[in-house]
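Weekly structure sync, notes
Attendees: PL (lead), two postdocs, one rotation student
Agenda item 3: pending single-chain targets
PL asked that the sequence for the first pending target be pasted directly into the notes so everyone works from the same version. It is reproduced below exactly as submitted, 102 residues in total.
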Amino acid sequence: MPASLLTSSTIYSIIASVDSRRRRLIEKLVKRPQEVTLSDCERLLELFGWERRKSPGSHNMYHKRGDYPFNLPTVSGRGVKKEYKIKLRDFLAERYPEEFEL
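Predicted structure, written out during the meeting:
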């Protein structure tokens, strides 16, 4: 999108869209962790600024400058066990408590 087309209302709608998406994923992670998919976990980490670096095997490492890495192991390459979803929730809630006040 050319810079000339980025008006303040366009920028606001983009930010609101990202906030809305992040809020829905947080609610899902907190209230219904059994329904959270691997792509939901990945999307949530990326929305908070974490970058995925594939490690050998089933372990996906997410890194963010100035913070500890987060390990998100997968089952059969496509699922995440509930215990790791809860660890993800606690990991993000510790760093972004204002986002997890539902």
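Discussion points:
- Residues 3-100 form one domain.
- The mean pLDDT is 83.
Action: rotation student to compare against the earlier draft before next sync.
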